[in-house]
Amino acid sequence: MxxxxxxxxxxxxxxxxxxxxxxxxxxxxxxxxxxxxxxxxTFTIDAEGTASALYRLSIGSALGPGQPExxxxxxxxxxxxxxxxxxxxYRIVATVLNTDTGEExxxxxxxxxxPAVPPETSWAVVLPTxxxxxxxxxxxxxxxxxxxxxxxEAPGDGRSWMTNPKRCxxxxxxxFQVAGMREQTTYRMWxxxxxxxxxxxxxSDTIDFTTGEALIAISEHHPVSxxxxxxxxxxxxxxxxxxxxxxxxxxxxxxxxxxxxxxLVWYLDTPTWAVRPSHGGTLWVIRxxxxxxxxxxxxxxxxxxxxxxxxxxxxxxxxxxxRLGHTDRINDIHHDVRDLPNGRIxxxxxxxxxxxxxxxxxxxxxxxxxxxxxxxNFRIQWVWNGWDHLDPAxxxxxxxxCTVGVAGCPPFHLAEQSNDWMHSNSLAxxxxxxLILSVRHQDWIVKVQYADGAGDGRLxxxxxxxxxxxxxxxGADDWFSHTHDASFISENRILxxxxxxxxxxxxxxPPDCHSRGQVWEIDERAMTAELIFDQDLGEFAFAVxxxxxxxxxxxxxxxxxxxxxxxxxxxxxxxxxxGATWRQIALDMFHYRSYRLRDLYSVPPSWNAPxxxxxxxxxxxx
Length: 622
Prior knowledge:
The chain is mainly β and 622 residues long. Helix content is 2%, strand content 45%. The longest helix has 10 residues, at 314-323.
């Protein structure tokens, strides 16, 4: 049975007027209110008399003064799913945009999410979810201003895990998604009240929960070497974004996490391009358009069950670019998304142009990149267009050209082939409030004047061969090429994954032609750069890769494309600050990225600018 609530619509032109019955719209829920926490509600937005429409769904507390937050931003799909685990009365606001006339119609209703257990329950309860490795822990109400978190452990493991804390509210049971558990294992769980400095005020009795059997298969971990001298338990999970499956072994590309022994502790069972973990048990993913099927058209933040927390699309962003007066449009969203310290969201998109006698004779299609920075409702706050700041007469250093169907190429529409000029693949915040962008096909890391949203986007420098820095020590072969995952790890040091294509992707590569993990120390006044850490990763990864500074002072590198498409391989390498190899693990799949995490609720501390870690030189000076 479907539940229909019909409201008067408003024409958004600064005043409100009623619509006739022929112009009415409706917001239809597939379940009646109230529903227990964790239930997925499917809303259908019906707009009569609208041939071409975009649908926005915004949701917020009905009791507070704040505005609802955008969950789905201007989607062509009018059937939208929503799930909340926090009890309360919610204001559901659906907006229908007529793309032919520009008119908007708004319909809203209230929906009540009740606790997942009977209100008289005065003890903790653990419930299964749709994922056999994720549980829903429901704790009794607690008094503010305290906060509560859940701890869980498998007896005999010697360590416990914990969720993010939540604020206590009078009379409201707290609900937690608990994840990071091995399959078919019994865990002990309990909740703790904590004070302002994370001190434990009181803990509850324990309750047991046994996980189910995972519904996916992952690659076996093949240890290559293991020589651990430093503590590696501070980040004991491996977050894996798989890229392409291995049909020979029956492996599909599911995002998942394992412990260091390769035992599965979490997964999503829908193949998706997982870009980066985010805060509070969420992650950023890039998906095809649900209507057209065009790839890399939807950017979504999802929770540990894969349920949408917020989502936008290429079409929604392009409509904003038009309103803001930009002439270029984006073709996709790709490679990287960053949560900025001020709560804004930064990501990369492709911009295609036709140029004449610029990259060869005649008119050709060329692919550049744009950085978009939005607020939490995906309203664009700042734009950087590579076409305005880099020289398009400088083609891709290896002459990369995209044709239809070629793996690794973004969508393009203006010609049958396109020059892949920039192919940017990572974005990071800097200690001084700017952004750095890894421009793979220019072999540069460029620093862009963002200035926390006040910058004009000018290029402050280009790091790399034929860039703006003088090399101190070493030789030209020290320079990286076709890099991935560049980020600051201190005030003046940059960590990156050097694929090394300029040296390796030649007819007769040198015998030591391997991909490398590098740390560069830069002086932005003297404009000098020195390679202070250079880890040979043992093989040449022709594409993808990731690099991470670990809490124990070491590094984690993911060589994500080794072998062939018929026999794909990935190699993880953990190195000490002195370059000693501590751990190597081989897998039978391609991986886009992997990161070591403390748990599934927090990101690597090195991402949390400006809390930059100290960093010794290599080799260490004792």
